[in-house]
């Protein structure tokens, strides 16, 4: 009986992303046993062979991303049981475990661009690359209305990927070696739709919004996220920076109730939220 391993499954997922396929689809070579997966419109899949638990989890979590279509926006949050992504001081290394970080790197490899806010860059100094998995680095997009970030941040100083520094009209100069993009802003908050628009002008239409919580909340409030991945660690921080801060609602019937799938991810719990139907009135 044919057997598929993690490496080959990841290769098929990357091939789907690189060819800009959409569901339904068949991945792999139908003429060669053990190499093809049939995916339906709801991202359900069939493989005529044996799969490990890890391969099945890989297909369940990443096929909807790889086959999400040419205009696709996803976000990921890693949080504690009490809904915190960092301490009061901003320390977040690491709330979730290694399996979650590998998953995040795979998400980066499946998109054209990854968006982060200035607060995340200031606190975490991320590289936003795919160091833990095979794949191509996305374009890094830093939302920094006042250009307040120091020039010594890692993503301003390495050539592993291109970096867009999105700033307001009156912001001071950007660090050398990055592309400066000026975008209008209101009360220092940039319009998420305008951000996606400027990326689309550059052919960057598959986007990961990686953080922080404020940035992800703005995209979610604007109804611009197709999917949200939430990884919950068995940890109680007690106080600190919240994962999401959305516009208030008066009644629970106004709450978003997305379709949700869950699975164990290392020591954490992973939730895959399909938000597309949640925005409908």
Biggest sheet: strands side by side, in what order? 11-10-9-8-12-6-13-16-15
Distance separating the two termini: 48 Å
Assembly state (oligomeric): single chain
Using only C-alpha atoms, the radius of gyration works out to 19 Å
Spell out the CATH superfamily of the largest domain: Dihydrofolate Reductase, subunit A
**What is the structural class?**
alpha/beta
Biggest sheet overview: 9 strands, mixed
Strand content: 25-35%
Number of domains: 2
Give me the CATH architecture of the largest domain, please: 3-Layer(aba) Sandwich
Low-confidence stretches: none
Estimated helix fraction: 10-25%
The SSE order reads: EHEEEEHEEHEHEEEHEHEEEE
Give the CATH class of the largest domain: Alpha Beta
H/I helix tally: 6
In the CATH scheme, what's the topology name of the largest domain? Dihydrofolate Reductase, subunit A
Tally of DSSP β-strands: 16
**Mean pLDDT across all amino acids:** 92
Backbone shape: globular
Pathway: Cofactor biosynthesis; riboflavin biosynthesis
Keywords: Hydrolase, NADP, Oxidoreductase
Protein name: Riboflavin biosynthesis protein RibD
Organism: Salinisphaera shabanensis E1L3A
Please characterize this protein's 3D structure:
This protein has 281 residues and is α/β, with parallel strands linked by helices. Helix content is 23%, strand content 26%. It folds into two domains: 3-64, no CATH class; 70-245 and 258-279, 3-Layer(aba) Sandwich (Dihydrofolate Reductase, subunit A), CATH 3.40.430. The strands form four sheets. The chain has a nine-stranded mixed sheet, sandwiched between helices. Helix 4 (118-124) links the parallel strand 8 (113-117) and strand 9 (139-143). The chain starts with a strand and ends in a 7-residue tail after the last strand. The model has no long low-confidence stretch (mean pLDDT 92). InterPro entries: DHFR-like_dom_sf, RibD_C, RibDG_C, Riboflavin_Biosynth_HTPR.
């Amino acid at each position: 009986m044919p057997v598929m391993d993690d490496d080959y499954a990841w290769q098929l997922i990357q091939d789907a992303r690189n060819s800009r396929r959409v569901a339904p689809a068949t991945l792999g070579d139908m003429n060669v046993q053990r190499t093809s997966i049939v995916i339906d419109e709801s991202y359900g899949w069939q493989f005529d062979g044996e799969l490990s638990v890890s391969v099945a989890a890989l297909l369940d979590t990443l096929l909807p991303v790889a086959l999400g279509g040419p205009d696709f926006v996803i976000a990921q949050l890693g949080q504690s049981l009490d809904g915190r992504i960092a301490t009061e001081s901003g320390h977040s290394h690491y709330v979730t475990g290694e399996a979650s970080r590998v998953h995040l790197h795979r998400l980066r490899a499946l998109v054209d661009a990854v968006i982060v806010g200035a607060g995340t860059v200031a606190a975490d100094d991320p590289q936003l690359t795919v160091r833990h998995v095979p794949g191509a680095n996305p374009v890094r997009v830093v939302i920094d209305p006042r250009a307040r970030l120091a020039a010594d941040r890692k993503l301003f100083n390495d050539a592993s990927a291109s970096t867009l520094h999105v700033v307001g009209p009156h912001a001071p100069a950007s660090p050398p070696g990055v592309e400066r993009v000026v975008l209008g802003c209101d009360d220092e908050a940039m319009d998420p739709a305008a951000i996606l628009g400027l990326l689309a002008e550059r052919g960057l239409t598959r986007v990961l919004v990686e953080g922080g919580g404020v940035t992800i909340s703005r995209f979610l409030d604007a109804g611009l996220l197709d999917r949200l991945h939430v990884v919950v660690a068995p940890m109680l921080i007690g106080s600190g920076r919240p994962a999401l801060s959305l516009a208030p609602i008066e009644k629970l019937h106004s709450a978003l109730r997305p379709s949700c799938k869950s699975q164990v991810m290392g020591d954490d719990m992973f939730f895959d939220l399909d938000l597309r139907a949640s925005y409908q009135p």
